[in-house]
Amino acid sequence: MVFSPDTQRAIAQQAEQLAPQMTRFLRELLEIPSYSAQEGPRIARIKQEMEAVGFDEIKVDGLGSILGRIGSGSRVIAMDAHIDTVEPGDLSAWPRDPFKGEVKDGVIFGRGAADQTGAMASMVYAAKIIKALGLEGDYQLWITGTVMEEDCDGLCWDYIIKENILRPEVVVITEPTDLGVYRGHRGRMEIEIRVAGRSCHGAHPELGDNAIYKMAPIIADVERLNESLAASADPFLGKGSCTISVIRSTSPSQCAVADSCAIHVDRRLTAGETLELAVAQLADLPSVKKARGEVVVLEYARAAYTGLTYPMRKYYPTWTLPEDHPVVRAGARVAEAALGQPARVARWGFSTNGIATCGLHDIPTIGFGPGNEIHAHTTEDQVPIEHLVKAAQFYAMFPKMYLNEVAR
Q1: What are the sequence ranges of the domains in the chain?
Q2: Order of strands, edge to edge, in the sheet holding 345-346?
Q3: Catalytically annotated residue among 39, 149, 192, 209
Q4: Which contacts (CB < 8 Å, 24+ apart) does range 131-137 have?
Q5: Quick one: which of 221, 223, 65, 208 has its CA closest to 145?
C-alpha cells in the first residue's frame, strides 16, 4: 500500500480544507479573459499563486506557458492544464456573466471553468498538499499552465519538448474527464480543399467558370465520405469522421462569377488512420479530381502573447495507452483512492495536448480532470467545487503511486 489509510484521510482532509482557497483562486482566474495568444495577465496571476503556495521553481517559457516545480528528485512528472479559453460569443446567450465566476449550489460557472481553468486551481493546491504532508519522493513534479491550445492543440508541448525546456517521463492531462481516468482520444486534422474558377461579369455567367459550382459536388462527396468511415470504427475510439466547417469564395465583386472557392474540413482520425490516408481519401474523390482541386494540410503560425511565432502543421495524431499500461494502472488506483469507488477508464471525445506529449513524442500520457467535457465551449461552462477537491487529492497522490507502479 503506497498510502496508509491515515495518510489517505489526511490528504482528503487537506483538500477539503483548501476548497475555499481553490474556489477563490479559480474565481479570480475566471475574471481574467484569457483567449489564445492573449494569456499574459492570467499567467501572471498563476505565478503569484504558485509563489504564495511555495513552489521550488517557477519559469515562463518563450511561448508564454508557465511551469512550476515542486521536489527535486530524479524522476520527472508533469501535469498540464491549458489556461487559454475560447471567446464567450454572444453574451446575451449566457444565463450569467462568463467572467464573474459565479458560485451557485456548489458549482462555479464561467468561461473556461471546465475547459480547463478549474484543473489549474486543483493542481496548484495539490502542490500545497504534497508539501504540507511531506509526500515528496524521488521525483520532481512540474505543474504547467500552457498557452494557445484552443488555437492549436499540442503546440505548447511541442515547443516545450523540442526546445529542451522539459521532457517528463509521464504526463497527466487535466482536461475535464468528469473524474474518470482517460487513456487517449482520436486525432484530428485541419484540411482545405481549394478549387479555381474563372471570373466574368455576373450578367453573363456562361462566359466564366464558377468555382462555387465546382465545389458543390465536392461538398456532397465529403458528406458521403464521412458516412463511409463507419467501416473503420475502432472498438475503443470509435469511427473517424469528417465535416465541413467553413466555406469561402473570392470574386472581383458581388456582380461577378467566383474565381476561387475553398472549404475547411475538420477530419477526426481513429486508430490506424494517418495523415497520408486522410489526404489521399479527399484527393481521390471523383469531384475533387474533376475540379482539379488542391488538398492542403493547414499550418498554424500565429504570434504568442510573448511575440514568438512557432509554426506547427495542423496534424494532431491519434494516441492511446493500453488499459494495462503502468501509467493507466497508477491513475486508476489513485482515482479509486480519491473517489472511494472503482475508476471509470475511458477516453475524450475531443482533442487535447496529449496529441503532442503522447501522439508526437511518445511520452506516456493519461487524463484526469474536474468538470465534464459536455460543458466545454458552452454557455453553461462549469465545474463543481467537489470536483476541485477530488482532483487535488488525485494530483497530490499520483506521483508516488506512479513511481510504485513502474517499479513493480
Answers
A1: 5-185+318-407, 187-300
A2: 57-60, 66-70, 139-146, 75-82, 170-173, 365-367, 181-182, 345-346
A3: 149
A4: 131/53, 131/54, 131/70, 132/14, 133/7, 133/10, 133/11, 133/14, 133/396, 135/11, 135/396, 135/397, 135/399, 135/400, 136/70, 136/71, 136/73, 137/71, 137/73, 137/399, 137/400, 137/403
A5: 65
CATH code linked to domain 5-185+318-407: 3.40.630.10
* Beta strand ranges found along 197-283 (DSSP E): 241-250, 260-269
- Spatial separation of the C-alpha atoms in residues 116 and 91, rounded to whole Å: 20
Give the CA radius of gyration of the chain.
23
The helix (run of H) or strand (run of E) holding residue 181 is strand 181-182
State residue 408's pLDDT score: 67
Identify whether 149 is a catalytic site residue: yes
C-beta separation of 317 from 359 below 8 A: yes
Identify the bridge partners of residue 303 per DSSP, sorted by sequence position: 309
Beta-carbon contacts of 141 under 8 Å, excluding residues fewer than 6 positions away, are 69, 70, 71, 77, 78, 79, 127, 130, 399
Q: Does the pTM of the predicted model rise above 0.85? A: yes
- 5: phi then psi, degrees, rounded to nearest 5: -55, -40
Tell which CATH classification among 3.30.70.360, 2.60.40.10, 3.40.50.300, 3.90.230.10 matches the domain 187-300. 3.30.70.360
The burial of 180, by beta-carbon neighbours within 10 Å (0-12 exposed, 13-18 middle, 19 or more buried), is given as buried
Please give the helix or strand (H or E) that residue 22 lies within, else none. helix 19-30
Distance separating alpha carbons of residues 344 and 369, to the nearest angstrom? 12
Q: How far apart are the first and last CA of the chain?
A: 12
Q: Which of 23, 61, 27 is nearest to 43 (CA)?
A: 61
How is residue 214 written as a grid cell?
A: 465546382
Residue 1 has pLDDT above 80, yes or no: no
> pLDDT tens digits for 121-147?
999 999 999 999 999 999 999 999 999
Per-residue model confidence as pLDDT tens digits over 319-350: 999 999 999 999 999 999 999 999 999 999 99
Specify the amino acid at residue 379: T
Residue 232: pLDDT band (50, 70, 90) is: confident
User: Would you say the C-alpha torsion 171, 176, 181, 184 has a positive or negative sign?
Assistant: negative
The residue annotated as part of the active site, out of 39, 84, 150, 209, is 84
What whole-number distance in Å separates Cα of residue 179 and Cα of residue 373?
11
3-class state of residue 167 by DSSP: coil
